[in-house]
Amino acid sequence: MYSQTTYNSPVGHLTLASDGESLIGLWLENQKYFADNFPEEWVANDCLPVFEATKKWLDRYFSGEQPSVTSIPLAPIGSEFRQTVWRLLHKIPYGQVMTYGELAEKIAAEMGRASMSSQAVGGAVGHNPISIIIPCHRVVGSDGSLTGYAGGLTTKVKLLTLEAVDMTNLYMPKHGISRN
């Protein structure tokens, strides 16, 4: 059985999930793939140490700090391939972005393959169950397009802006954000 709690953030209502020891989920309100692959029932529980640590981390993050994730035990549920992608997402520095293609190259190298499909990587990034902390919002299209965020592109822009990402070469043509 999993436990859950909520956190009200500047980007909306967040749902946190735990197996009792580790954080296994952090989803934005109306997030695509919300609680995907979580078959068991959840119970409300605000008192778990992992929830307290996560809420403190989120408080610091949303106040503009760059908190370390080492204080939160993370255990996202997913295939070995997805775990590899999520582990590499952690390596994207705060305030920087990486393209899906660059991420695919790194994964291919780690797996000892000549290449890796950017689409396969994008699927794994999109199914990241621990949003914000595993920073999938830092991944962009090869042309700088702000695309593919399960929490919504407006939220992606808010998170990148909070991290003071240089938005000069990033854009969302259908949403009024264009290249400068």
From TrEMBL:
Pfam family, one: DNA_binding_1
InterPro entries the UniProt entry points to: MethylDNA_cys_MeTrfase_AS, MethylDNA_cys_MeTrfase_DNA-bd, MethylDNA_cys_MeTrfase_DNAb, MethylG_MeTrfase_N, MGMT, MGMT_N_sf, WH-like_DNA-bd_sf
Boundaries of every Methylated-DNA-[protein]-cysteine S-methyltransferase DNA binding domain copy: 80-165
Localization per Swiss-Prot or TrEMBL: Cytoplasm
Residue intervals of the Methylguanine DNA methyltransferase ribonuclease-like domain: 5-75
Enzyme class: transferase
UniProt keyword annotations, A-Z: Cytoplasm, DNA damage, DNA repair, Methyltransferase, Transferase
Record: active site: C136 (nucleophile)
Enzyme Commission identifier(s): 2.1.1.63
Gene Ontology cellular component terms for the protein in this record: cytoplasm
Gene3D superfamilies noted in UniProt: Methylated DNA-protein cysteine methyltransferase domain, Winged helix-like DNA-binding domain superfamily/Winged helix DNA-binding domain
Molecular function as annotated in GO: methylated-DNA-[protein]-cysteine S-methyltransferase activity
Catalytic activity: a 6-O-methyl-2'-deoxyguanosine in DNA + L-cysteinyl-[protein] = S-methyl-L-cysteinyl-[protein] + a 2'-deoxyguanosine in DNA; a 4-O-methyl-thymidine in DNA + L-cysteinyl-[protein] = a thymidine in DNA + S-methyl-L-cysteinyl-[protein]
Purpose: Involved in the cellular defense against the biological effects of O6-methylguanine (O6-MeG) and O4-methylthymine (O4-MeT) in DNA. Repairs the methylated nucleobase in DNA by stoichiometrically transferring the methyl group to a cysteine residue in the enzyme. This is a suicide reaction: the enzyme is irreversibly inactivated.
HAMAP family from the UniProt entry: OGT (MF_00772)
Further information: This enzyme catalyzes only one turnover and therefore is not strictly catalytic. According to one definition, an enzyme is a biocatalyst that acts repeatedly and over many reaction cycles.
Family listed: Belongs to the MGMT family.
Name by which UniProt lists this protein: Methylated-DNA--protein-cysteine methyltransferase
Lineage summary: Bacteria, Bacillati, Bacillota, Bacilli, Lactobacillales
